[in-house]
Amino acid sequence: MPEKELTTAWTIVWVLVAFFFGLFLMYLAHLTDSPKNPHWYSALMREGGAVISTSSVLAAFWDLLLKRRLTRELLSHVGVSLAIKEAGLVSISSVDDFQGEIDWDVLFESGGPYRFFFGYASSWRHSREQSFVKLAKTPGADVKFLLPNPEDETLMGQLANMYATDPGSVKERVAGAIRDIKQIFQDGTAHLSVDVVSVAPSLPFYRFKDIALFSLPKYNSGRGGIIVVTFKKGGFLWHFLEKQIRTLEEGSQPT
Question: Is residue 192 classed as helix, strand or coil in its secondary structure?
């Protein structure tokens, strides 16, 4: 018999023993008690029996139902907490303003190495221009942008489908992003790399010193409703990201 079933069986047995023992005490109290000559022990047996019988029923209700349900809920919460800890997950959120709802200033100030992978991210880049200017003036800062190769026509076609536009527009925007980034950093003291890859940024990422973000792709047009996964160094999400970065870097070309 499984241990859980054995425990349940013994619980039921002891509850029944206690319940009938309480009834037996109340029965003895009834036999020994007399309205004309009440005995103190009769009252004791009657009250004690009632307490034992009632307590046994309550104990069974607690042990067989409430305690086990509570235990399952606690174990469930513990399991979720452990999973979050192992992943290094900080938050999962839906943002309508990707540029404004995330505290990018804090992320940039946390340090590098900085690794960014996206299509062209025009709005985000323009909103973070001052962060890039400041970063460019940081001596020795390790900054790398990984962008899709604008000369890869097949890739530009894939991105055009993703962004609901035409390949020519995508190529122009990616090439423009490369020019803008280089222009910002050209007179700086940071160590900048802008490499291109023949991989569609289906999972754009923004990696800082010990925290990173994934922005999950969406297939409807329009801004807003972006799912952002934020996680920290040490969890398996971070290890996954590091592997993706190494793979992208191995297949990248400098610009």
Answer: strand
Residue 113, preceding peptide bond in cis (omega within 30° of 0):
yes
With beta carbons less than 8 A apart as the criterion, state whether 120 and 176 touch: yes
Q: pLDDT tens, 178-222? A: 999 999 999 889 999 999 999 999 999 999 999 999 998 776 666
Residue 162 structure tokens: 């993703």
Summarised one tens digit per residue, pLDDT across range 101-123 is 899 999 999 999 999 999 999 99
Determine the Cα–Cα distance for residues 242 and 228; give it in Å rounded to an integer: 18
Angle between the N-to-C axes of helices 40-61 and 3-32, in degrees from 0 to 180, rounded to the nearest 10: 160
Distances in Å between the alpha carbon of 21 and those of 24, 45, 49, 56?
A: 5, 11, 7, 10
CA angle 212, 218, 223 (to 5 degrees): 90
Residue 1 is predicted with a pLDDT of 44
* Residues 220-241 pLDDT 10s: 666 667 899 999 999 999 999 9
To the nearest 10°, the Cα dihedral for 193, 196, 200, 203? Answer: -10
Q: What are phi and psi of 108, to 5 degrees?
A: -65, -40
Residue 184's pLDDT is 94
With contact defined as beta carbons under 8 Å apart, do 195 and 144 qualify?
Answer: yes
Break the chain into its structural domains and give their ranges. 3-87, 90-254
- State which CATH number among 3.40.30.10, 3.40.50.150, 3.30.1390.20, 3.30.870.10 fits the domain covering 90-254: 3.30.870.10
